[in-house]
Amino acid sequence: MNNDQIAEAFEQIAQLLQVEDANVFRIRSYERAAETIRGLGPELSDIRESEAGLQGIPGIGEAIADKIEELLDTGELSFLQDLLDRYPPGFLELLKIPGLGPKRAALVFHELGVGSVDQLEEACVREQVRELKGMGAKSEQKLLQAIESYWRGRERALLGAMLPQAETIVEFLRELPAVISADYAGSVRRGRETVGDLDVLATSDDPAAVCKAFGEGGLLAEVTSAGGTKVSGTLPGGRQVDLRVVAPESYGAALVYFTGSQQHNIRLRERGQDRDLKVNEYGVFCADEHDGDDQEGERVAGDTEAGVYAALDLAWIPPELREDRGEIQAAAAGELPDLIESSDIRCDLHIHTNWSDGRASIAQVAESARERGYTHLGITDHSASLHVAGGISADAVRAQREEVDALNSRYVEQDADFRVLLGHEADITTDGALDLTYEVFDTVDFVVGAIHQGMSADADRMTARVVGAIETGMVDLIAHPTGRVLQTREAHGMHVSELAGAAAQFDVALEISATPDRLDLSDVHARLAQERGAKLSINTDAHSIASLDFMRFGVLTARRGWIEAETVINTWPLERLTTAWLQQRRGSSESA
Ligand code: DGT
Ligand code: CA
Ligand code: CA
Fold first, then answer.
1. Domain with 486 in it: what CATH number?
2. Cβ–Cβ under 8 Å, residues 305 and 316
3. CA 243 to ligand 3 center in whole angstroms
4. Residue 202, beta-bridge partner list
5. Based on the domain organization, do 410 and 277 belong to the same domain?
6. Is the domain of 479 the same as that of 436?
7. Residue 363 and residue 402: Cα distance in Å, rounded?
8. Which of 36, 49, 190, 356 shows the greatest Cβ crowding within 10 Å of its Cβ?
9. How much distance in Å is there from the Cα of 320 to the middle of ligand 1?
10. pLDDT classification of 404: cutoffs 50, 70, 90
11. Which of 225, 224, 312 is nearest to 274 (CA)?
């Protein structure tokens, strides 16, 4: 079991204990254990073998450590199982309905026997829920809406959840002796922010052996159909996977076809028709003039993707661009963008530490960033007014300054190519000002502005607020500009074009938040911002060391938005970021 699975077990315990109205401190201890485990870098199985052991983890006591051992050894936890046994199988899913909450879940369960989302929906439709104590017609209506959005959300999963699973499957396939190559295709390969199902391809001279090994490999919760060249099944989370095994001469064509998008494929086929070529998942063929389409002519391409595109007089198009958003014209004209790559990223500029609501210390985050090959890093704890997130005082910012300076001195002594910048995440207030004193402004190297409150105003007001903050000249970067949370919260209104214009004018960067459920700016918004001349910044907004890994989802989103490295301030060398950009704009002479 990995850390996420173990953390989930503790979350389930906490939820079920809440339903049972257990002691709050007991509940809180399981919640804290789950949080701690999610934030860990190394796997628990490795920590157990280490000298310090599981109880060396801060906040993990003997009782929790025993449960972790049991999970690691058996994959199950009898304590959780006993709790689960008191409820129907769909009960944990039921707890995911926003607005229901553990108290009401207990109520509908005991009063109406509701034990699943389906049953709750039925009870709402039959107007039984409104009769319960503390409920009414209005809260029943709200529950129905929540159920509807729950069903909608289930249709697609976040890229952040699916990409690691796609990688695991591809690794498994590549290890099989019969496999020549294997890749994931479909929307995951295009880096789409949400994914419907996984499409995986392999090539082999013995497709049946590959299909058999995949079906029996233990990666699938269920095999729904298995043939000699295709296996379909579901992942443990219920998401569908299709594996297709094709002949080596067709691998490139199949990869193009199953990567999509469908609109992109249609454009390629049309382009083929203009050249008397037939394009399908087996290859590119000369169209046979006499026999129509049912007879394929001579094969001109198919074993590689580049060959397929070349046959259509096109440069190879990166998968993230394959959305029929002008990429084919650009490829034909030799004008494809030189897309940003993960290896271009030199820093992460939006990170929370244990000075506010993050979990790791500045030094720990810095070490982890160095291991990732970064040359610098910006830490950005919350400003004072954001009490819920442990916003910090001016005194604390001064203390941070000392800590950062001391750390940097050590890097200088060690001749290490690494520096920490001290940033600050200032709340943008409802009247378009910054929650930031001149004292704090002078103490830090840069300021991130973000909206965390009053998000229900209309787009005109929201845009004016952020543009107002930009015009103060005290903010360098606007974090998660539209405020959306995928599958949970709609973006607040924001005229991104206008925002990007102001950002370009005042030389302020707009963020692409790499947090998997934000990806904000989105791909199309980022592209618009780049076109308007704004700089961008890709950051994880990490609250733990493990979350620094989110960077790649931001890079994928940027690539889908046609973003080049030059646009993104995280790709610039430290000197350019500090001396040429931050200090010039801030009119300050201090050096980081
Ligand atoms: P998803 O799964 O909804 O996130 O999106 P995709 O793009 O992965 O779509 P999916 O899984 O339905 O199909 C994978 C690829 O296969 C798709 O991107 C393009 C190709 N494909 C599927 N059906 C068709 C079709 O009817 N016509 C064409 N031209 N291509 C198709
Ligand atoms: Ca798919
Ligand atoms: Ca599919």
1. 3.20.20.140
2. yes
3. 9
4. 182, 245
5. no
6. yes
7. 13
8. 190
9. 14
10. very high
11. 312
